[in-house]
TrEMBL record:
It is found in: Cell membrane. The chain crosses the membrane at residues 44-65, 72-95, 248-266. It is a multi-pass membrane protein. Keywords: Cell membrane, Membrane, Transmembrane, Transmembrane helix, Transport. Its main location: membrane. This is Energy-coupling factor transporter transmembrane protein EcfT. The gene is ecfT. Belongs to the energy-coupling factor EcfT family. It comes from Salisediminibacterium halotolerans.
Length: 267
């Protein structure tokens, strides 16, 4: 399950989405994120789903690969839905069984938050699946360039965020290996009380932390060996070029977000 998480992975390709400027993709995802948490209109959220599906089709991402990657994410979405379902006590009482009560407000809020999370992860995954680590770092750095005037280390920040994103599948892959190794030694993570299950997780966390620090140290050593010394004075082999297609994509997302917000307030 941990091996197929799609956030942080990159699939080489020559699709329309692959060819977009990373700044356009970052900007579109940022606008999409703001829109998701500003609107509750069912029609606008349905259009957002169509927009996400269209983006994935244009990116040429294999559907089976996407489904495999969403299995672990589905558990997080389900947990979020159940949390809002049982913690929100607003609206009409839908189900009552002793201490277990479900209200219509919980159903609506849980479904809305789960749906937003699904769309957000889908679009964030599309960003990393179609953008190389170098382009992602360059795009973030260029977008944060105005902050350099107030002495913010934009290159280092962009590099940190890019490495963090790319580290997700690596970390989850290590988790999967450790879990399989512990199960081969007789560990059982699916039986027993909650306390026993929590105790069984400890043998996973310790080697996972050790491996994480080791990988971070190896990465730092590799960067030093290649002469990396921060962003000041660095030149770029490949320059980003903004195209008409990038402008069209940004306009589409901005107009969609503005229309969705205005339709909620004025229509």
């Amino acid at each position: 399950m941990f091996d197929h998480v799609i956030i942080g992975q990159y699939i080489p390709g020559k699709s329309f989405v692959h060819a977009l400027d990373p700044r356009a993709k970052l900007g579109a995802v940022f606008v999409f994120l703001i829109f998701l948490f500003l609107t509750r209109d069912p029609f606008a959220l349905t259009l957002a789903l169509l927009l996400a599906v269209t983006a994935f089709l244009l990116a040429g991402i294999p559907f089976r690969f996407y489904l495999k990657g969403m299995r672990f994410i589905a558990l997080i979405i389900l947990f979020t839905f159940l949390l809002h379902l049982f913690m929100t006590q607003e609206g009409a009482l839908v189900f009552d069984f002793g201490f277990l009560r479900i209200y219509s407000g919980g159903l609506i809020e849980g479904g809305l938050i789960g749906y937003r999370l699904f769309l957000l992860i889908t679009m964030a995954s599309m960003l990393t699946l179609t953008t190389t680590p170098v382009d992602l770092t360059d795009g973030m750095e260029r977008l944060m360039k105005p902050m350099a005037k107030i002495n913010v280390p934009t290159h280092e920040l962009a590099l940190m965020m890019s490495i963090a994103l790319r580290f997700i599948p690596t970390l989850l892959g290590e988790t999967s290996k450790i879990v399989k190794a512990q199960m081969a030694r007789g560990a059982n993570f699916s039986e027993g009380s909650l306390w026993k299950r929590l105790k069984a997780v400890i043998p996973i966390l310790v080697p996972l932390f050790i491996q994480s620090f080791k990988r971070a140290e190896d990465l730092a050593t590799a960067m030093e060996a290649r002469g990396y010394a921060g962003g000041e004075g660095r030149t770029k082999f490949r320059q980003l070029r903004w195209k008409n297609s990038d402008t069209a994509v940004m306009l589409l997302f901005v107009l969609f977000a503005v229309w969705s917000v205005l339709s909620r307030w004025f229509i």
